[in-house]
User: Fold this.
Amino acid sequence: MASNHYSAQYDEQQKQLINDIFQQQKIAYQQQPYPQYSERITKLQTLKQAILSHQTELIEALAADFNHRSSDDSKLGDILPTIMGINYAIKHLKGWLKPAKRQVGILFQPAKAQVVYQPLGVVGIVTPWNYPIFLALGPLTTAIAAGNQAMIKLSEFTPATNKVIINMLAREFEPSNVAVFDGGPDVAAHFTNQAFDHLLFTGSTRVGKLVMAAAAKNLTPVTLELGGKSPVIIDPDINLEQAVNQFILAKTLNAGQTCVAPDYILCPQEKITELITICQQQFTRMYPNVQSNSDYSHIINDEQFQRLQHWLIDAQQQGAIIHTMSSEATWPTTSHGEPSTRLCPLLLVSQVTDTMLIMQQEIFGPILPIIGYQNIDEAINYINQGERPLALYLCSYNKQLQQRIVHQTHSGGVCINDAAIHVAQDDLPFGGIGPSGMGQYHGQEGFYTFSKAKSVLTKGKFNGSKLAFPPYNRWIHKMIYRLFLR
Assistant:
């Protein structure tokens, strides 16, 4: 982890601000526990226009935080999915707000039943550094759509981006409605200890456990969006060039610093050499040079860069072979011998074993191990013996194999013949399972996550319940038991 960019005094100020605004938001919710449709739409439109009008400023801030980050990586990974999510919420919110009609059993007639989706109250959102706009404002979108107040804690590793987001939202929203905080790990810990009505955390599995423990003290429900080792399975019968085109962008976008980036490849043993060659050819077409290429992003900080170096050295010492996809750049440092530039091309690693660090934890960088398999059963068993991943990718046009992978493996989501883009589908829920997460959000599922599905049963003047009053063992009770207790 990188050192804290904020002073102890600043952190204390942020903690006090969290305390004060949390109380303000609780009061604001009590005063307006069910915002009208028009109010929610206005807030969503305000959020959208704020992002669009600050687009250049946000992209420049992201580039500063990463030392260099491709503007297209920022548009594709942060700005675009956030705007698409807002547009989707605006389009569908009226339908989401409609009470859902439910059936009433004949024994309890006449009556009507429905489910009303009520705002939870004050929602807490904790975001990571890899996509600080999308992973902060995406959850905010669904929190607003559901009618909640929201407090956001941004990562301490993106101070420039944080400043833009904080100023941008402060100009558009009252702090009693939407408030944003930065600061170091102590501030994050203080934030997660608040008695939120729901807490959404995106980050590592290790920190996710700490967040869940903190939330448990207040019985705060949590949604955890974590990570894990998301595999790519290559069908023995697929053309390898097609397969590579399906997953390589998901691994090179943001230099592999994506929670749903492919984490390792399961490839037919006899095709590994060909796979490496095709990956190198495709990477070179995408990035003819790396050192001076504005399209290729850097690793976020020195500590993350050094972690990746350490894992590569560990793998090599245990017999792995490192394959550099760019002839221009090498590891463990750049060609200039300056680790601080934090530039790392895509690296494929063959002859890996489970004892290597790169196979024990989520890589979160442009390193892609390859594991050979003899038959598809072996590949499926390998996945199922490990922890359940956030995503699973299959390169195959075989319909039977597609169904088998969907039904015989467990993961947060599956993407067939592409990678990572399922996250950008607003009509699909997004979330992990087990070590890769808990709960889900995006689109309609996000609206439900940040709402209380309240059951409402309504009766009129005639109420037959009194017919079942004691004393029991009358004819009415005998009839009820005879008709319904079977």
In short: The longest strand covers residues 112-119. The CA atoms of residues 126 and 267 lie 36 Å apart.
